[in-house]
Each structure stands twice: as structure tokens, then as C-alpha cells.
């Protein structure tokens, strides 16, 4: 009886986590619409087919999309090709075209811009930021960064108009660097033909690397996971100027005030009202959005999977998330050139928004 019960439980978990069978739909035209050498057309589906695939494979996700408020989706630019600066020879340091950009980070600036970070899978081009019009979804421009880092976490400090980007220093340790809104708006890759310059770089005492980060109430929360040590989240309080406090007795490293353990496969974090949202994804199994009541001020509290107050099943390869104004913005990497070769994946070539409501202080679906 015990063996039978375990088999039933395993089957239920497998049903919940296994990949959905993806129905076949005709691909859209491969020739991209371009703005300054960056593709703006969806990489995989027409709008009609994208809706159909979501409806057939993830009906619970589809029913929570907000079709009343436009744009319903944000097409991820640059998946077919992107303007970028060459990192390797030949033509090192010169403008070129990358065909292997992988989206990782997501930020919203004053309901004016939506920013997506991406890196070159082959490391032959510098990483980039793609800037979109938040209200229309229209692609504005590509911003080339002066590194080949994973840029798996970006976040915007609305209080000081500063975009923070997770990077790696020369010692291969975690670092964060920033760009002002003025610098972002002014930059033009076509005219400048070189990467934008970071400001206010800070080396972090922990974690060793940065998988994700977010800004919330004068703090930057930085997280990391690996298969051996699991996941950790660190809280850094910024000073009045919105900058990290450096400890001169610790080689000018920023020292975290707090830390918590987390589930080991976290890709993104966001705060919304009294909730903490974590995106969990690894490999081509279904992703999860984990929702926790914010109890970070309680001693010995950790963001483990079994502590989540709600779990929402999502397509594979979920990356950064943002909870804002009763909606959750979700970025996936499943429509990159590499993953588009897998016919069994839903290729999420758009940022989607889930409409949520609050019940008893916790996010729930519509």
C-alpha cells in the first residue's frame, strides 16, 4: 500500500511538472522587421498562433492574461538578430549583428520604458539592453553594454532614477553597476558605435555570483543559487544617495545587512504589496511562480519551496519577473535561437502579463 501511494504521488507531481505537448503551428516569416539592425518581429509565432498555443498548452495562464489593457504582450526584440558590439576578433570593439542573444532581465522605468537585458550565448558580442515603449510595446533601441556578462538581473530604483545591472568583476566575483535614466535615453548605438559606460560599480561581499536582483524600499536584494549549496538571498541597504555602502575595512566591498536561504532554482524576485514573488525554473520542465507573504523581518524565516503560500505553473525557461499594479510581468528565454530548435517547447517570444487579485493578503489568480 505504501509503494502504491508513493507511485500515485509521484505520478501527480510528474503530471504537474512535465512538459506540455506543443501543438504544431506554422512559423511566421523568418525575415525580420528591423530597427537599426535589431529585429522587432516575434521570433516564433504570429499573435493569433501565440494565443492559440498558450490556450491549448497552458489554459490557466491564458485565462489570466489581461486582454483589456494594451499591450497584452511585449514582443521580445533581438531574438532573430540584434545590433551589438563585437567582443572577439576579428572586428573586436566594432558594431556588428548578433544572432544568439538570450534574454535574462526585466525592468520597468516610470511606466515609460520596459527594459530587457540579454547576453550573447557564444560570448562573441557584448551584452545588451533592449528598450521598449511601456505603453505601446514599440521597440525603441538597443543599448550595448561594456561586458559579456550574463546580466541575469536588472532593476530600476525609481527614487534615484538609476538602473542597476548585475555584472562580474575582474576577479570573477559578484558586482553591480548602474546607469542613469538620462544616460539610457541619450545613448545611440548607431552614432556612438561603442558601449555605454557604467557608473557607480560596487563589488559585493556576497553572494559569489548574482543570479537575480531587485530594488525595494531603499534596499537591493541580490540572490544566487547553485546545485551544491542551494539558494541564498542577501539584502543591501542603500545610502541617502541611492548608492551601496562600502566597508573600507573589507576592501571597499558592500556588506549585506541580512540574508535568507531560498529554494535552489530561483531566477527572479519581485515585491508586490505584501507579497514576495520568486520565479523558479531550471531545464525544460515547467516553471513555477512562487508567492510568499513577506515575512523577511521574522527570525529564521526562509524562502523555501514548502513555505510558498501559492504556486502558479508556467511554461519552461522563466527568467525575471516584476509584480506591479496588480499585474505580473514574466520574461522567458525559450524563444532564443538555441531553444527554437526544440519543437517540444512553447517558445515564449513575448513578455506576458498575468492579471492578479489579492485575497487575504496574498496574490491569487483571477
Description of the structure:
It is a single chain. The protein has helices at residues 2-17, 47-57, 59-62, 181-186, 189-192; strands at 34-35, 38-39, 73-75, 82-85, 95-98, 101-109, 113-120, 128-133, 139-144, 154-157, 162-168, 174-180, 199-203, 212-216, 219-226, 230-237, 246-247, 253-254, 258-262, 266-272, 275-280, 287-293, 310-314, 318-324, 327-332, 350-359, 362-365. It is mainly beta. The protein has one domain (2-365): Tachylectin-2, Chain A (5 Propeller), CATH 2.115.10. Strands 3, 24, 25, 26 and 27 form a 5-stranded antiparallel β-sheet that branches. It has a 4-stranded antiparallel β-sheet with strand order 6-7-8-9, with no helix packed on it. Strand 6 and strand 7 form a beta hairpin.
Topology:
Layout: H1 2-17, E1 34-35, E2 38-39, H2 47-57, H3 59-62, E3 73-75, E4 82-85, E5 95-98, E6 101-109, E7 113-120, E8 128-133, E9 139-144, E10 154-157, E11 162-168, E12 174-180, H4 181-186, H5 189-192, E13 199-203, E14 212-216, E15 219-226, E16 230-237, E17 246-247, E18 253-254, E19 258-262, E20 266-272, E21 275-280, E22 287-293, E23 310-314, E24 318-324, E25 327-332, E26 350-359, E27 362-365
Antiparallel strand pairs: 1-2, 3-26, 4-5, 6-7, 7-8, 8-9, 10-11, 11-12, 12-13, 14-15, 15-16, 16-19, 17-18, 20-21, 21-22, 22-23, 24-25, 25-26, 26-27
